[in-house]
Amino acid sequence: MHSVVERELELKLVVSPERAVPVPARLTYRTDDPCAVHIAFHIGSERPVHWTFARELLVEGVFRASGQGDVRVWPAKADGRGVVMMALTSPDGDALLEAPAAAVSAWLERTLRVVPPGSEGERLGIDGGLAELLAPTSGRAEELWPREQWPWDGSTDG
Questions:
Q1: Hey, how many other C-beta atoms are within 10 angstroms of the C-beta on 75?
Q2: I want to staple 20 with a disulfide (CB 3.0 to 4.6 A). Which of 12, 33, 132, 149 is the partner?
Q3: Nearest to residue 36, comparing CAs of 52, 50, 51?
Q4: Where are the alpha helices (DSSP H) in the chain?
């Protein structure tokens, strides 16, 4: 069974140092995708704008500058209150968003209770998949392995 942790909140799209536009957003975390956080921005278009990036990046960004490239996150102060800044870059443009640090932190804490840090791999089933992939095939490998030398291999080593 998979769980979902969601939070609706209002972010601010920073247009200039003097001006910010409110942007309703939804933070979503799904246990079937345990390494990622999903953010949907409702910007008045027909469909919301979706971004997905590492949960670890957002967790770290609440405390210190994190990320590089398309997603960068860092803590800051705005009007005397803690905020989390998110700089997003895409071929369609750039956005600088400001989120209330308390709301983001509370939501992240809920996700960390559902899937503690370091246990994400257990949710993905990577160990089971690797075990299946690397398991002996009861002689089948010998059937597939050539018994003769490779035509381009002049060595006599087996």
A1: 17
A2: 12
A3: 52
A4: 55-63, 101-114, 120-124, 126-134, 140-144
Task: Write the DSSP symbol of residue 43.
Answer: -
What is the rounded distance in angstroms from the CA atom of residue 57 to the CA atom of residue 79?
25
Please tell me the distance from the alpha carbon of residue 16 to that of residue 91, in angstroms, as a whole number.
Answer: 21
Count of helix runs (H) and strand runs (E) in the chain: 5, 8
**Where do we find the tokens 């670890």?**
56
pLDDT in tens, 126-147: 566 666 667 766 556 566 666 6
pLDDT single digits (tens) 8-45: 999 999 999 899 999 999 999 999 999 999 999 988 77
Report how far apart, in Å, the C-alpha atoms of 89 and of each of 50, 69, 95, 111 are.
Answer: 13, 7, 7, 25
**Which tokens is 98 given?**
């400001």
Angle of the 55-63 helix axis to the 101-114 helix axis, nearest 10: 140
The Cα 127–Cα 73 span in angstroms is: 31
Choose among 28, 38, 40, 27: nearest CA to 3.
28
